[in-house]
Amino acid sequence: MGQIENIENRYGNDYLTIKSERISPIPQNKVKEYFQEKTDSLLINSNYDLKRVYEAVILGKGYKLTQEMREKFNYIGISHLMALSGFHIGLVISIISFLLPTKLPIKKRERNLFLLVTLTLYYLGIEHSPSLDRAYIMGVVYLLGKIFDENTELIKTLAVSFVLSLIINPASINSISFQLSYGAVFAIAEIFPYFKTKLYKGKSKLIDSLILTLSIQFFLTPLLIYQFGVIQLLSFITNMVVVPVGSLFISIGFISLLLENFSLGFLLTPILNFVFKLFFMLVDFFYTIPFMSIKYKNESNLIILFYIITILGIFTLKFRKDYKKDEKIYKRTKISQ
Is 126 helix (H, G, I), strand (E, B) or coil? Predict the structure, then answer.
């Protein structure tokens, strides 16, 4: 604890000169120290920009990004890629599942228990945020469902995670990270399926990805306008072009960190460096395009009405659809009898 005597901005970050009054040691997290040590040895010959982005997307240290980086990511609409969330948790589960040989004499339940322990160790070794907490709880609920052979439907898992998050930290509901995180998953679980049935009935993954991106953007835009005064007009383009390259960087980053446990991370660092350069080339290119996003501040409380109407409308349509389906099944059963 102390008094701030001076604030100096360097390299896009604020550096504080503090006159200390009392110093108390912070208990060290051994898992975090281990992860940081392996990251440092992995990236010892990499440039500083790569280190900043790597630690943001792998260790959750978003504060290491410069102000210039944040402005670029926000402008082209890919800032969500820098925040640890469901994508990162899902990636950990997928990579470990893939690396576990299927021919090993391990039962399905034991395999999922191993995944749960691995996921928890990763969670304990990185910086936390509301979006990461949500993703971790959903990952745990999903794996526990697999372990105990329970239904792991996405919307139910999301509801359980939402309630548990609020029990653990009720104040997190005011966090924009919390709101965006749960809003995005709700859009994936409920709005995307509705839009897809109305807009496209084909099997093209490209069109499905476009509809998914537009569904999330439709649901989150009012919140982004209210909180940041930003409308991301063309972010669906960068989500189709830049995000896959960024996702590849994150995937290689996870595998590299895993290999570094056996001092083999150097095998992937050349690829990691190449993908990072490609990623930032795309970021810089889209940053030069005008009107990727525009400023529009609106703090009207109508945003609450928008979300109430949208959520009620989605569930009303869903219940009506389920009712009609149950009615058809009932009629068929009655006729067969």
Answer: coil
Q: Is 149 helix (H, G, I), strand (E, B) or coil?
A: coil
Helix H or strand E segment including 143: helix 130-147
Contact of 32 with 125, CB cutoff 8 Å: yes
- Say what percent of the chain tops pLDDT 70: 92
**268-323: per-residue pLDDT in tens?**
999 999 999 999 999 999 999 988 888 776 666 777 788 888 888 887 877 776 65
CA–CA distance from 84 to each of 54, 128, 131, 133 (Å)? 11, 8, 7, 9
Query: Is residue 280 packed enough to be buried (19+ CB in 10 Å), middle (13-18) or exposed (0-12)?
Result: buried
Cα separation, 147 vs 141, whole angstroms? 10
3-state class (DSSP) for residue 27: coil
Quote the CA–CA distance of 71 and 269 in Å, as a whole number. 27
Neighbour count for residue 219 (Cβ, 10 Å): 22
The amino acid occupying position 189 is A
- What is the full DSSP assignment across 195-248? HHHHH--S--HHHHHHHHHHHHHHHHHHHHHHHH-EE-SSHHHHHHHHHHHHHH
Residue 322 pLDDT: 62
Q: Residue 42 pLDDT > 70, yes or no?
A: yes
Tell me the C-alpha distance between 256 and 265, whole Å: 5
Angle between helix 30-42 and helix 108-124 axes, rounded to 10 deg: 80
How far is Cα 232 from Cα 144, in angstroms, rounded to an integer?
Answer: 37
Strands 2-10 and 13-20: antiparallel
Q: Which tokens is 234 given?
A: 């063309």
Digit-coded pLDDT (tens) for 84-105: 887 788 888 888 888 776 656 6
Q: Which two tokens stand for residue 18?
A: 């503090």
Q: What is the pLDDT of residue 102?
A: 60
Residue ranges of the domains in the chain?
A: 30-299
